Amino acid sequence: MVVKVYGPEYASSKRVIVCLVEKEIEFEVVDIDLFKGENKSPDYLKLQPFGLLPAIQDGDYTLYESRAIIRYYVEKYKSQGTELFGKTMEEKGKVEQWLEVEAHNFHPPLYTLVLHTVFSSKLGITPDQKVIQENEAKLGKVLDIYEERLSTSKYLAGDFFSLADLSHLPFGHYLLNGAGKGYMIRDRKHVSAWWDVISNRPSWKKVLQLFPYPT
Amino acid sequence: MVVKVYGPEYASSKRVIVCLVEKEIEFEVVDIDLFKGENKSPDYLKLQPFGLLPAIQDGDYTLYESRAIIRYYVEKYKSQGTELFGKTMEEKGKVEQWLEVEAHNFHPPLYTLVLHTVFSSKLGITPDQKVIQENEAKLGKVLDIYEERLSTSKYLAGDFFSLADLSHLPFGHYLLNGAGKGYMIRDRKHVSAWWDVISNRPSWKKVLQLFPYPT
């Protein structure tokens, strides 16, 4: 069964796609144009009642929420492609911990920054410098903790690439591309080295090549 | 090994504790007083560098982020206590989906509501009626989708109690206790019935009895 992924150009959907590539799982994509409101169409709302991206369809099975989808596929194809949960239950626990840090500490300030820099004109938002500064400061504090963690560990969850690292790629990309905040990565030696390692993986390069970000 | 749970009185830590009770896992607690800043002490920051609750210590193993901790223990004690991830991989996928919905759709507006109602005086926040109204409206839309889901399914992920339901207990409790927003549950027939079922589980009653909420 080929997995259908909705809305491949958007960042959250790319979280799913890069995972499918790492796991060597066949997929096809279905375009959804957020800026035309296609995520609020009755058909799409049947799949994802909150009207958010991404969602997947896999035969009769459907699922939404990117971090739920990637967990599902990593377990379903445990012995295929890259092992993204580590080898032991304790390693998996740490992957889960850093996946949650990504979702709750890294993502929210970055998402606000992206809205107020990359998408302000498209969304008709007047970029608010105070909001930008506050969220940059919040994200900076988070990245300081990453810097310390990555000074003793090659990847976030340990000495292995995992879902926790992968999950940072789609929105992290905007810091260096579009948001003009690349220095937040580059000024932190270990974060910078980590970013180079994870963003140079063939899987991520393939995603960027196949599905350019919306502009 | 007895699991040590830090900060048992706070809502996020209760997410861990109710899970340990469901899984029949022995634990002890370590008090952390947020209002005295004990979560920023050097010792606690070694355990949880972001200074957030909860964290656990289990022999030499430590973990933080409540939703990571509960996933870890549900897998580690798969055949003990309540089965909180369902029986199949597909059921587990749906549990993960609704756990993410809890974290990203249900929790953020509710958390803001709780800050501006329950804890405003303790935190020195002037309750902002506009913020309260906006977040109540957001949460209401989320609960409308829950209402539809729960009209065809006894629990969120299917016809079985799971981590997805459990994860709503600690902050959902505030809607009916302290925030004065119980009508948001009670005005929605299926949400109300679901809430009664999950909040009457012996595990949750035990948590409330053992560890009263901070006032």
Automatic annotation (TrEMBL), chains A, B:
InterPro entries: Glutathione-S-Trfase_C-like (IPR010987), Glutathione-S-Trfase_C_sf (IPR036282), Glutathione_S-Trfase (IPR040079), Glutathione_S-Trfase_N (IPR004045), GST_C (IPR004046), GST_Phi_C (IPR034347), Thioredoxin-like_sf (IPR036249). GO terms for molecular function: glutathione binding; glutathione transferase activity. Residues 1-81 form the GST N-terminal domain. It holds the Pfam family GST_C. It is an enzyme of class 2 (transferase). This is glutathione transferase. Residues 88-215 form the GST C-terminal domain. It catalyses: RX + glutathione = an S-substituted glutathione + a halide anion + H(+).
